[in-house]
Amino acid sequence: MRQITEQYVTSIAPNPAAVKNAKKISNSGGFVRLCASSDDSFYMGECKGSGSSNYITSADFADASKPVYRCSCPSRQFPCKHSLALLFEMAAGKSFTPCEIPEDILQKRKKLEAKAEKAQSQSEEDKAAPKAPPKVNKAARTKKLKKQLEGLNMTQELVNSLLNSGLGAMGGNSVSAYRDLAKQLGDYYLPGPQAYINELVLEMEAFREDSNTVHYTKAAGILSRLRALLIKSRDYLNGKLESGDVGDDDSTLYEALGGVWKLDQLQALGLKKENAQMMQLAFNVIFDEARKEYIDIGWWADLETGEISTTYNYRPLKAVKYVKQDDTIFELAKVPMLTYYPGGSNRRIRWEAAEFIPITPEHLAQLRSKAAPELAGPVKTAKNEIKNALSPDKVVSLIQFRRIGKTEGGYVLEDKAGHTILLNDMPDGESTTLRLPMLPNQEILENQVLLGAFYYDRPQQRVCLQPYSIVTEKTVVRLMY
How do beta strands 97-98 and 31-36 pair? Predict the structure, then answer.
Protein backbone atom coordinates (compact mmCIF):
# COMPACT_ATOMS: atom_id res chain seq x y z
CA MET A 1 0.00 0.00 0.00
CA ARG A 2 1.16 3.52 -0.76
CA GLN A 3 2.57 5.21 2.32
CA ILE A 4 0.46 8.17 3.46
CA THR A 5 0.97 9.97 6.78
CA GLU A 6 -1.58 11.93 8.78
CA GLN A 7 0.79 14.89 8.64
CA TYR A 8 0.62 14.84 4.85
CA VAL A 9 -3.19 14.73 4.90
CA THR A 10 -3.27 17.67 7.27
CA SER A 11 -0.85 19.62 5.06
CA ILE A 12 -3.10 19.44 1.97
CA ALA A 13 -6.37 20.13 3.80
CA PRO A 14 -8.07 23.45 2.99
CA ASN A 15 -8.69 24.21 6.69
CA PRO A 16 -8.66 22.56 10.16
CA ALA A 17 -12.42 21.96 10.04
CA ALA A 18 -12.01 19.74 6.97
CA VAL A 19 -9.40 17.67 8.83
CA LYS A 20 -11.68 17.29 11.85
CA ASN A 21 -14.64 16.22 9.71
CA ALA A 22 -12.50 13.83 7.67
CA LYS A 23 -11.19 12.12 10.81
CA LYS A 24 -14.75 11.83 12.06
CA ILE A 25 -15.77 10.04 8.84
CA SER A 26 -12.78 7.70 9.00
CA ASN A 27 -13.04 6.91 12.70
CA SER A 28 -16.80 6.30 12.58
CA GLY A 29 -16.65 3.76 9.76
CA GLY A 30 -18.06 6.11 7.15
CA PHE A 31 -16.78 4.02 4.22
CA VAL A 32 -18.85 1.07 3.05
CA ARG A 33 -16.29 0.05 0.42
CA LEU A 34 -12.55 0.57 -0.09
CA CYS A 35 -10.59 -0.65 -3.09
CA ALA A 36 -7.25 -0.06 -4.81
CA SER A 37 -5.59 -0.94 -8.11
CA SER A 38 -2.91 -3.63 -8.19
CA ASP A 39 -0.26 -1.12 -9.35
CA ASP A 40 -0.86 1.01 -6.21
CA SER A 41 -1.66 4.10 -8.28
CA PHE A 42 -5.41 4.37 -7.68
CA TYR A 43 -7.50 4.29 -4.50
CA MET A 44 -11.26 4.61 -4.27
CA GLY A 45 -13.87 4.62 -1.53
CA GLU A 46 -17.64 4.65 -1.27
CA CYS A 47 -18.66 6.89 1.60
CA LYS A 48 -21.98 7.37 3.34
CA GLY A 49 -23.20 10.93 2.80
CA SER A 50 -26.01 13.19 3.95
CA GLY A 51 -28.03 12.46 0.79
CA SER A 52 -29.87 9.35 -0.33
CA SER A 53 -26.90 7.99 -2.29
CA ASN A 54 -23.32 7.38 -1.24
CA TYR A 55 -20.41 9.50 -2.45
CA ILE A 56 -17.63 8.04 -4.57
CA THR A 57 -14.23 9.54 -3.78
CA SER A 58 -10.86 8.62 -5.27
CA ALA A 59 -7.15 9.42 -5.12
CA ASP A 60 -5.17 9.05 -8.34
CA PHE A 61 -1.37 8.81 -7.96
CA ALA A 62 -0.49 8.33 -11.63
CA ASP A 63 1.76 11.36 -11.14
CA ALA A 64 2.92 11.04 -7.52
CA SER A 65 4.06 14.68 -7.43
CA LYS A 66 0.57 15.86 -8.43
CA PRO A 67 -2.05 13.49 -6.98
CA VAL A 68 -5.58 14.04 -8.27
CA TYR A 69 -8.45 13.88 -5.77
CA ARG A 70 -12.01 13.47 -7.03
CA CYS A 71 -15.35 13.17 -5.25
CA SER A 72 -19.00 13.07 -6.31
CA CYS A 73 -20.10 15.26 -3.39
CA PRO A 74 -21.19 18.88 -4.05
CA SER A 75 -18.56 20.46 -1.76
CA ARG A 76 -16.56 23.39 -3.13
CA GLN A 77 -13.64 22.66 -0.81
CA PHE A 78 -10.65 20.95 -2.37
CA PRO A 79 -9.74 18.36 -1.37
CA CYS A 80 -13.13 17.77 0.26
CA LYS A 81 -13.57 16.03 3.61
CA HIS A 82 -14.40 12.72 1.86
CA SER A 83 -11.12 12.79 -0.11
CA LEU A 84 -9.22 13.56 3.09
CA ALA A 85 -11.07 10.76 4.89
CA LEU A 86 -9.99 8.32 2.16
CA LEU A 87 -6.37 9.35 2.76
CA PHE A 88 -6.84 8.89 6.51
CA GLU A 89 -8.07 5.34 5.77
CA MET A 90 -4.81 4.75 3.87
CA ALA A 91 -2.73 6.26 6.67
CA ALA A 92 -4.48 3.97 9.17
CA GLY A 93 -3.57 0.91 7.12
CA LYS A 94 -7.17 -0.09 6.41
CA SER A 95 -7.81 -3.03 4.09
CA PHE A 96 -8.42 -2.14 0.41
CA THR A 97 -9.81 -4.83 -1.89
CA PRO A 98 -8.25 -5.15 -5.38
CA CYS A 99 -10.09 -3.42 -8.22
CA GLU A 100 -9.60 -2.31 -11.80
CA ILE A 101 -9.05 1.35 -12.59
CA PRO A 102 -12.39 2.71 -13.92
CA GLU A 103 -12.50 3.54 -17.62
CA ASP A 104 -13.42 7.18 -17.03
CA ILE A 105 -10.32 7.56 -14.83
CA LEU A 106 -8.13 6.04 -17.55
CA GLN A 107 -9.58 8.49 -20.07
CA LYS A 108 -8.90 11.41 -17.73
CA ARG A 109 -5.35 10.16 -17.26
CA LYS A 110 -4.82 10.15 -21.01
CA LYS A 111 -5.95 13.76 -21.24
CA LEU A 112 -3.63 14.76 -18.41
CA GLU A 113 -0.74 12.83 -19.99
CA ALA A 114 -1.34 14.52 -23.35
CA LYS A 115 -1.39 17.88 -21.65
CA ALA A 116 1.83 17.06 -19.76
CA GLU A 117 3.53 15.85 -22.96
CA LYS A 118 2.56 19.05 -24.72
CA ALA A 119 3.94 21.11 -21.83
CA GLN A 120 7.13 19.01 -21.82
CA SER A 121 7.53 19.45 -25.56
CA GLN A 122 7.07 23.18 -25.19
CA SER A 123 9.58 23.18 -22.35
CA GLU A 124 12.16 21.37 -24.49
CA GLU A 125 11.61 23.92 -27.27
CA ASP A 126 12.06 26.74 -24.78
CA LYS A 127 15.34 25.22 -23.62
CA ALA A 128 16.58 24.80 -27.19
CA ALA A 129 15.71 28.33 -28.24
CA PRO A 130 16.54 31.51 -26.31
CA LYS A 131 13.49 32.44 -24.27
CA ALA A 132 12.17 35.90 -24.91
CA PRO A 133 11.72 37.98 -21.77
CA PRO A 134 8.13 38.49 -20.61
CA LYS A 135 6.40 41.27 -22.48
CA VAL A 136 6.21 44.52 -20.58
CA ASN A 137 3.88 47.41 -21.21
CA LYS A 138 6.67 49.96 -21.30
CA ALA A 139 4.42 53.02 -21.04
CA ALA A 140 2.48 51.63 -18.07
CA ARG A 141 5.64 50.44 -16.31
CA THR A 142 7.33 53.83 -16.84
CA LYS A 143 4.31 55.60 -15.40
CA LYS A 144 4.37 53.34 -12.36
CA LEU A 145 8.10 53.86 -11.77
CA LYS A 146 7.66 57.63 -11.91
CA LYS A 147 4.79 57.40 -9.44
CA GLN A 148 6.95 55.30 -7.10
CA LEU A 149 9.78 57.80 -7.40
CA GLU A 150 7.38 60.61 -6.50
CA GLY A 151 6.29 58.71 -3.39
CA LEU A 152 9.91 58.03 -2.39
CA ASN A 153 10.77 61.73 -2.67
CA MET A 154 7.78 62.62 -0.51
CA THR A 155 8.82 60.05 2.09
CA GLN A 156 12.42 61.31 2.04
CA GLU A 157 11.27 64.83 2.91
CA LEU A 158 9.40 63.66 6.00
CA VAL A 159 12.23 61.36 7.08
CA ASN A 160 14.70 64.25 6.75
CA SER A 161 12.40 66.37 8.88
CA LEU A 162 12.37 63.77 11.64
CA LEU A 163 16.15 63.26 11.45
CA ASN A 164 16.75 67.02 11.62
CA SER A 165 14.45 67.50 14.60
CA GLY A 166 15.85 64.45 16.36
CA LEU A 167 14.15 61.35 17.69
CA GLY A 168 12.93 63.42 20.62
CA ALA A 169 10.10 64.45 18.29
CA MET A 170 8.76 60.93 18.46
CA GLY A 171 6.35 61.88 21.19
CA GLY A 172 5.08 64.99 19.42
CA ASN A 173 2.71 65.72 16.58
CA SER A 174 4.81 63.78 14.04
CA VAL A 175 2.80 60.63 14.77
CA SER A 176 -0.23 61.90 12.86
CA ALA A 177 1.97 63.09 9.98
CA TYR A 178 3.56 59.66 9.63
CA ARG A 179 0.21 57.92 9.93
CA ASP A 180 -1.10 60.07 7.06
CA LEU A 181 2.02 59.33 5.01
CA ALA A 182 1.57 55.58 5.50
CA LYS A 183 -1.94 55.83 4.08
CA GLN A 184 -0.77 57.90 1.11
CA LEU A 185 2.01 55.48 0.14
CA GLY A 186 -0.63 52.95 -0.85
CA ASP A 187 -1.44 55.23 -3.80
CA TYR A 188 2.22 55.29 -4.86
CA TYR A 189 2.67 51.50 -5.24
CA LEU A 190 5.04 51.45 -2.24
CA PRO A 191 3.82 48.85 0.26
CA GLY A 192 7.44 48.17 1.29
CA PRO A 193 8.22 51.70 2.53
CA GLN A 194 4.64 51.87 3.81
CA ALA A 195 5.36 48.95 6.15
CA TYR A 196 8.45 50.72 7.52
CA ILE A 197 6.40 53.84 8.21
CA ASN A 198 3.77 51.76 9.98
CA GLU A 199 6.50 50.18 12.13
CA LEU A 200 7.73 53.66 13.01
CA VAL A 201 4.21 54.76 13.97
CA LEU A 202 3.87 51.73 16.25
CA GLU A 203 7.09 52.66 18.08
CA MET A 204 5.97 56.28 18.38
CA GLU A 205 2.62 55.24 19.82
CA ALA A 206 4.29 52.81 22.23
CA PHE A 207 6.64 55.57 23.41
CA ARG A 208 3.67 57.83 24.07
CA GLU A 209 2.19 55.17 26.33
CA ASP A 210 5.17 54.06 28.40
CA SER A 211 8.00 56.60 27.65
CA ASN A 212 10.43 53.67 27.46
CA THR A 213 13.59 54.71 25.63
CA VAL A 214 13.87 51.25 24.08
CA HIS A 215 11.48 52.59 21.46
CA TYR A 216 14.13 55.14 20.46
CA THR A 217 16.54 52.31 19.68
CA LYS A 218 13.95 50.44 17.65
CA ALA A 219 12.86 53.61 15.84
CA ALA A 220 16.48 54.40 14.99
CA GLY A 221 16.88 50.94 13.44
CA ILE A 222 13.70 51.37 11.40
CA LEU A 223 14.80 54.81 10.19
CA SER A 224 18.21 53.42 9.23
CA ARG A 225 16.66 50.68 7.10
CA LEU A 226 14.08 53.06 5.62
CA ARG A 227 16.73 55.63 4.76
CA ALA A 228 18.88 52.97 3.05
CA LEU A 229 15.85 51.75 1.10
CA LEU A 230 14.98 55.29 0.00
CA ILE A 231 18.52 56.06 -1.20
CA LYS A 232 19.05 52.78 -3.04
CA SER A 233 15.53 52.71 -4.47
CA ARG A 234 15.72 56.23 -5.87
CA ASP A 235 19.04 55.40 -7.57
CA TYR A 236 17.54 52.15 -8.86
CA LEU A 237 14.38 53.77 -10.27
CA ASN A 238 16.24 56.73 -11.75
CA GLY A 239 18.68 54.33 -13.42
CA LYS A 240 15.87 52.31 -15.00
CA LEU A 241 14.06 55.42 -16.21
CA GLU A 242 17.22 56.98 -17.66
CA SER A 243 18.21 53.77 -19.46
CA GLY A 244 14.69 53.07 -20.67
CA ASP A 245 15.06 49.47 -19.48
CA VAL A 246 11.94 49.21 -17.32
CA GLY A 247 11.57 45.41 -17.59
CA ASP A 248 12.09 42.80 -14.88
CA ASP A 249 15.50 42.17 -13.37
CA ASP A 250 16.85 40.20 -10.43
CA SER A 251 17.24 43.18 -8.09
CA THR A 252 16.03 42.63 -4.53
CA LEU A 253 14.73 46.22 -4.60
CA TYR A 254 11.80 45.15 -6.76
CA GLU A 255 10.30 43.19 -3.88
CA ALA A 256 11.56 45.61 -1.21
CA LEU A 257 9.49 48.32 -2.90
CA GLY A 258 6.47 46.04 -2.67
CA GLY A 259 6.60 44.24 -6.01
CA VAL A 260 5.03 40.78 -6.25
CA TRP A 261 6.93 38.17 -8.22
CA LYS A 262 5.24 35.57 -10.41
CA LEU A 263 6.85 32.17 -10.82
CA ASP A 264 7.23 32.56 -14.59
CA GLN A 265 9.01 35.90 -14.08
CA LEU A 266 11.53 34.35 -11.71
CA GLN A 267 12.08 31.30 -13.89
CA ALA A 268 12.62 33.52 -16.94
CA LEU A 269 15.45 35.15 -14.98
CA GLY A 270 17.03 31.72 -14.45
CA LEU A 271 16.12 31.53 -10.75
CA LYS A 272 15.16 27.87 -10.71
CA LYS A 273 16.41 24.34 -10.05
CA GLU A 274 15.08 21.07 -11.38
CA ASN A 275 14.62 17.90 -9.31
CA ALA A 276 15.47 19.40 -5.93
CA GLN A 277 15.21 17.44 -2.68
CA MET A 278 14.22 19.69 0.21
CA MET A 279 13.98 18.92 3.93
CA GLN A 280 12.22 21.28 6.33
CA LEU A 281 14.25 21.74 9.51
CA ALA A 282 12.29 24.44 11.37
CA PHE A 283 8.96 26.25 11.22
CA ASN A 284 7.42 29.29 12.89
CA VAL A 285 4.40 31.58 12.66
CA ILE A 286 4.75 35.29 13.41
CA PHE A 287 2.38 38.24 13.32
CA ASP A 288 3.58 41.40 11.57
CA GLU A 289 1.77 44.22 13.33
CA ALA A 290 2.86 46.83 10.78
CA ARG A 291 1.55 44.84 7.81
CA LYS A 292 -1.40 43.35 9.74
CA GLU A 293 -0.70 39.82 8.57
CA TYR A 294 0.40 36.41 9.79
CA ILE A 295 3.51 34.95 8.19
CA ASP A 296 4.18 31.20 8.16
CA ILE A 297 7.94 30.67 7.79
CA GLY A 298 9.68 27.40 6.96
CA TRP A 299 13.44 26.84 6.85
CA TRP A 300 14.43 24.22 4.28
CA ALA A 301 17.74 22.51 3.47
CA ASP A 302 18.73 21.43 -0.04
CA LEU A 303 20.06 17.88 0.31
CA GLU A 304 22.42 18.31 -2.64
CA THR A 305 24.09 21.55 -1.55
CA GLY A 306 23.14 22.13 2.10
CA GLU A 307 21.85 25.60 1.19
CA ILE A 308 19.23 26.88 3.63
CA SER A 309 16.22 28.55 2.01
CA THR A 310 12.92 29.85 3.34
CA THR A 311 9.25 29.59 2.44
CA TYR A 312 6.87 32.41 3.34
CA ASN A 313 3.10 32.13 3.40
CA TYR A 314 1.44 35.52 3.94
CA ARG A 315 -2.02 35.61 5.54
CA PRO A 316 -3.41 39.18 5.77
CA LEU A 317 -5.59 39.67 8.83
CA LYS A 318 -8.52 40.89 6.73
CA ALA A 319 -8.42 37.70 4.64
CA VAL A 320 -7.02 35.20 7.13
CA LYS A 321 -10.01 32.86 6.92
CA TYR A 322 -9.58 32.54 3.16
CA VAL A 323 -5.84 31.76 3.12
CA LYS A 324 -4.73 28.30 4.19
CA GLN A 325 -2.11 28.26 6.92
CA ASP A 326 1.13 26.40 6.26
CA ASP A 327 2.27 23.77 8.72
CA THR A 328 5.33 21.87 9.86
CA ILE A 329 6.50 19.26 7.32
CA PHE A 330 8.25 16.13 8.59
CA GLU A 331 8.84 14.48 5.21
CA LEU A 332 11.27 15.01 2.34
CA ALA A 333 9.91 17.10 -0.53
CA LYS A 334 10.95 15.94 -4.01
CA VAL A 335 10.37 19.06 -6.10
CA PRO A 336 10.36 18.81 -9.92
CA MET A 337 10.86 22.59 -10.31
CA LEU A 338 12.10 24.75 -7.45
CA THR A 339 11.89 28.52 -7.93
CA TYR A 340 14.09 31.03 -6.10
CA TYR A 341 13.55 34.69 -5.29
CA PRO A 342 16.43 37.16 -5.72
CA GLY A 343 18.56 37.58 -2.62
CA GLY A 344 21.69 36.58 -0.75
CA SER A 345 21.62 34.02 2.05
CA ASN A 346 18.43 32.09 2.87
CA ARG A 347 16.66 32.94 -0.38
CA ARG A 348 12.92 32.53 -0.48
CA ILE A 349 11.72 29.52 -2.48
CA ARG A 350 8.42 28.33 -3.95
CA TRP A 351 7.13 25.36 -5.91
CA GLU A 352 3.87 24.32 -7.52
CA ALA A 353 4.08 20.57 -6.97
CA ALA A 354 6.08 18.12 -4.87
CA GLU A 355 6.10 14.48 -3.85
CA PHE A 356 6.58 13.84 -0.13
CA ILE A 357 8.43 10.73 1.03
CA PRO A 358 9.67 9.54 4.46
CA ILE A 359 13.06 10.83 5.59
CA THR A 360 15.65 8.07 5.89
CA PRO A 361 18.98 7.89 7.76
CA GLU A 362 20.67 8.14 4.35
CA HIS A 363 18.98 11.51 3.76
CA LEU A 364 20.11 12.73 7.18
CA ALA A 365 23.67 11.54 6.56
CA GLN A 366 23.75 13.36 3.24
CA LEU A 367 22.51 16.58 4.86
CA ARG A 368 24.91 16.34 7.81
CA SER A 369 27.84 16.08 5.39
CA LYS A 370 26.90 19.49 3.92
CA ALA A 371 27.11 21.38 7.25
CA ALA A 372 29.94 23.87 7.76
CA PRO A 373 32.80 22.15 9.66
CA GLU A 374 33.75 25.29 11.60
CA LEU A 375 32.17 28.53 12.82
CA ALA A 376 34.49 30.88 10.93
CA GLY A 377 32.76 30.62 7.54
CA PRO A 378 29.12 31.08 8.68
CA VAL A 379 30.07 33.88 11.09
CA LYS A 380 31.89 35.78 8.32
CA THR A 381 28.91 35.37 5.98
CA ALA A 382 26.53 36.56 8.68
CA LYS A 383 28.62 39.66 9.45
CA ASN A 384 28.72 40.64 5.78
CA GLU A 385 24.96 40.18 5.39
CA ILE A 386 24.02 42.01 8.60
CA LYS A 387 26.10 45.04 7.58
CA ASN A 388 23.63 45.63 4.74
CA ALA A 389 20.73 47.62 6.18
CA LEU A 390 18.32 46.05 3.69
CA SER A 391 19.34 42.46 4.42
CA PRO A 392 17.57 40.31 7.04
CA ASP A 393 18.92 40.68 10.57
CA LYS A 394 20.01 37.03 10.70
CA VAL A 395 21.57 34.29 8.58
CA VAL A 396 20.44 30.70 9.15
CA SER A 397 23.09 28.04 8.56
CA LEU A 398 24.04 24.43 9.29
CA ILE A 399 27.10 23.96 11.52
CA GLN A 400 28.83 20.84 12.79
CA PHE A 401 29.63 21.00 16.50
CA ARG A 402 31.67 19.07 19.01
CA ARG A 403 29.44 19.88 21.95
CA ILE A 404 26.96 22.31 23.44
CA GLY A 405 27.51 23.07 27.12
CA LYS A 406 26.30 25.35 29.90
CA THR A 407 28.57 28.11 31.25
CA GLU A 408 28.03 31.02 33.62
CA GLY A 409 27.14 33.19 30.64
CA GLY A 410 24.67 30.69 29.19
CA TYR A 411 24.83 27.89 26.63
CA VAL A 412 27.87 27.81 24.33
CA LEU A 413 28.47 25.87 21.13
CA GLU A 414 31.98 24.61 20.43
CA ASP A 415 32.96 23.57 16.91
CA LYS A 416 35.41 20.82 16.05
CA ALA A 417 38.28 23.31 15.86
CA GLY A 418 37.66 24.49 19.43
CA HIS A 419 36.05 27.83 18.50
CA THR A 420 32.99 28.84 20.51
CA ILE A 421 29.91 31.01 20.15
CA LEU A 422 27.24 32.01 22.66
CA LEU A 423 23.77 30.55 22.12
CA ASN A 424 21.06 33.11 22.74
CA ASP A 425 17.55 34.11 21.61
CA MET A 426 16.89 36.96 19.22
CA PRO A 427 14.84 39.79 20.77
CA ASP A 428 11.07 39.84 20.19
CA GLY A 429 11.11 36.29 18.88
CA GLU A 430 10.42 32.75 20.03
CA SER A 431 12.79 31.44 22.70
CA THR A 432 14.53 28.17 21.84
CA THR A 433 17.59 28.01 24.11
CA LEU A 434 15.32 27.30 27.09
CA ARG A 435 14.41 24.00 25.43
CA LEU A 436 18.00 22.71 25.45
CA PRO A 437 17.93 21.50 29.09
CA MET A 438 14.50 19.91 28.42
CA LEU A 439 15.88 17.47 25.85
CA PRO A 440 15.28 13.93 27.12
CA ASN A 441 18.63 12.73 25.78
CA GLN A 442 21.47 15.14 26.50
CA GLU A 443 23.82 13.01 24.37
CA ILE A 444 22.49 14.77 21.28
CA LEU A 445 24.37 17.87 22.48
CA GLU A 446 27.62 16.21 21.35
CA ASN A 447 29.01 15.64 17.84
CA GLN A 448 25.90 16.61 15.90
CA VAL A 449 24.78 19.25 13.39
CA LEU A 450 22.90 22.41 14.40
CA LEU A 451 20.61 24.58 12.34
CA GLY A 452 20.77 28.06 13.84
CA ALA A 453 20.41 31.78 13.17
CA PHE A 454 23.55 33.91 13.40
CA TYR A 455 22.70 37.48 14.46
CA TYR A 456 24.26 40.53 16.08
CA ASP A 457 23.35 40.89 19.75
CA ARG A 458 23.47 44.65 20.42
CA PRO A 459 23.44 44.57 24.24
CA GLN A 460 26.40 42.16 24.25
CA GLN A 461 27.97 43.69 21.12
CA ARG A 462 28.78 40.31 19.60
CA VAL A 463 27.52 37.79 17.08
CA CYS A 464 25.39 35.13 18.75
CA LEU A 465 23.65 31.99 17.51
CA GLN A 466 20.03 31.03 18.16
CA PRO A 467 19.49 27.26 17.87
CA TYR A 468 16.60 26.10 15.69
CA SER A 469 17.11 22.34 15.28
CA ILE A 470 19.63 19.56 15.88
CA VAL A 471 20.16 17.09 13.04
CA THR A 472 21.23 13.69 14.37
CA GLU A 473 21.97 10.45 12.52
CA LYS A 474 18.42 9.26 13.18
CA THR A 475 16.14 12.31 13.29
CA VAL A 476 15.70 16.08 13.36
CA VAL A 477 15.16 17.41 16.89
CA ARG A 478 13.26 20.68 16.48
CA LEU A 479 13.62 23.49 18.97
CA MET A 480 11.50 25.70 16.68
CA TYR A 481 8.68 23.63 15.26
Answer: parallel
